[in-house]
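User: Could you check the structure of this?
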Amino acid sequence: MWPWDHLALGYVGYSVYIHSRRGRPPGSAETLALAIGTQFPDLLDKPLAWQFHVLPSGTTLFHSAFTAVGLCGLLVYFHRTPVSEAFALGYLLHLPADMLYPALMGNGLWTSFLWWPLVASGPSRSTTLLSKTMELFTGALVQVQTPSGWVYLVVELCVLGIAGVLWLRDGHPGIGWN
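Assistant: Sure, the predicted structure tokens are below.
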């Protein structure tokens, strides 16, 4: 899943959560923490696998449910604030979002990465962060020309649209740092 998809799904989830839990829209600090949380697993796993070759693939250590639940649980337990909750929710929503992409492309629900290291993750071929990113982007351009690619594109545009409408309705937190 692309970074903007993670951000949009995370924002929708957090906006619904904060409205129902606290009766208010997200604040700017929460929105920034949420944005970082939605990207957190990829910001660590991808470079560690693709550039530095420390991890077997770009969806292992920080995509593992064990790591995510452990880190988020500790963060919220020791620092229970709306900002830490926003980061944790963004991080935790990243994982099911990564399961969604293969399912929308007709490849079934992909869950094996959640159980790393108990379930082995196939190794990424040796590459660099930039070349792997370009390979994925090029593959996505080819995939979007297929029927399943169109389904994904429609779902993606709907989620982005919903997130945009919610963000505007919430007073566009993060802009002007309210």
